[in-house]
Amino acid sequence: MASITIAKPAEVNGDCPRLSKNYKMETNKVTVVLGAQWGDEGKGKVVDLLAINSDIVCRCQGGNNAGHTVVVNGKEFDFHLLPSGIINSKCTSVIGNGVVIHLPGLFEELKKNELKGMEGWQQRLIISDRAHLVFDIHQQVDGLQEAEKGKNSLGTTKKGIGPTYSSKATRNGIRIGDLLGDFDIFEEKFRTLAANYKRMFPSLEVEIDSELVRYREYAEKIRPLVRDTVAYLHKGIEEGKRVLVEGANAAMLDIDFGTYPYVTSSNCSIGGVCTGLGIPPKLIGEVLGVVKAYTTRVGDGPFPTELHDETGQMLQERGHEVGVTTKRVRRCGWLDLVVVRYTAMVNGYTSLCLTKLDILDTLKEIKVGVAYKSNGKKINYFPSSMPELSNVEVEYVTLPGWACSTEDVRELGKLPPAAQNYVKVIEDFLQVPVKYIGVGQGRESIISAH
């Protein structure tokens, strides 16, 4: 394996006048897990693994448009709003201010996972009072906006995420704290929001009175879980608690750095951690980028290494590539290291987790995208223009496959030599070490590589 030295972040003066002297910033940094492609890389499994040694696990952005699957003791848990670490009974889960929350969806998710054996969540789930609410109105508007676009639709999940972030940006959004405050003020805000959307979409039907009755009930259900999460997290860090942050979606879906407009409505890159939780950059330590051993994406938009042949179909079938949230079949293609190098620039990965290596077990040859050409010339940037990205020519390297099963391998040295070489090529290209390798669905199916 390649030996790569990663520069350590500069130490922070523990005597910073704005913080307590026992604020252990040198040794107690926040660990962040981020998707490095278009999502569905297997972040939930990685977070579940790391949560075993964490005290607090946080979601910082997105909503129930995200989908994370965790398999524990043969049981499959699906999370959309909940941090994947909630399965760990010794870990507190935090839904931060940057998340947009659909309360009916949240309680449905809690109930479904409770029936599968998730116990005691009432004592270890905390929700930010600053988080914005996703209403059914937002979901209806999401669908109407997509319908208006016709053939130019973006393929959104229609979960109301974009309209909710739009409400937040135009300052007529409604937060959890509003719901728990003076209900007359909440009602006024809700009626104003509904009237605004009704003017925009006359066909929109909203049962305002029945919604208000429903949300009065939700207010009492959610109240015991809500607090100021900014103060809670900083107190926990000061006390030496280990904090893990789970990014939803992935870097190529980031509203600023992704394949805009085929993106989500939040910053799912490293910046969303700071704004979505109130954590300053100097408290962030390890940034683990999760990379699938090939590439997938759900929905529309350019996909340079996409495969439309039997290999793409094989990846889809062996990888069970169906969206957790949308149930749509994921598009599949070769690993695109141009994409991962770009997201590494934005996110500053200190290490990587390579997932689903076992899905490549049957291939005799494997291609990896290592460069783009635009108009016949190699480019050293990732195109922001979707027409340009749609027309790039991908330069590949072809590597030998290993043509044998890796599912039962638990040590790096016991991987087939060709599989070890595949990992080494990724490390050498990105100059970032691969710390974990996933070779199956379960929590136990991860190789510690470093």
Automatic annotation (TrEMBL):
The gene is LOC112046414. One of its GO terms (molecular function) is adenylosuccinate synthase activity. Substrate binds at residues 324-330. It comes from the Eukaryota. CDD domains: AdSS. This is Adenylosuccinate synthetase. It comes from Bicyclus anynana (Squinting bush brown butterfly). PROSITE patterns: ADENYLOSUCCIN_SYN_1, ADENYLOSUCCIN_SYN_2. Binds 1 Mg(2+) ion per subunit. GO terms for cellular component: cytoplasm. InterPro entries: Adenylosuccin_syn_GTP-bd (IPR018220), Adenylosuccin_syn_Lys_AS (IPR033128), Adenylosuccinate_synth_dom1 (IPR042109), Adenylosuccinate_synth_dom2 (IPR042110), Adenylosuccinate_synth_dom3 (IPR042111), Adenylosuccinate_synthetase (IPR001114), P-loop_NTPase (IPR027417). GTP binds at residues 39-45, 67-69, 330, 356-358, 438-440. Its EC number is 6.3.4.4. Pathway: Purine metabolism; AMP biosynthesis via de novo pathway; AMP from IMP: step 1/2. Homodimer. SMART domains: Adenylsucc_synt. IMP binds at residues 40-43, 65-68, 157, 171, 249, 264, 328. Its main location: cytoplasm. HAMAP family: Adenylosucc_synth. Mg(2+) binds at residues 40, 67. Keywords: Cytoplasm, GTP-binding, Ligase, Magnesium, Metal-binding, Nucleotide-binding, Purine biosynthesis.
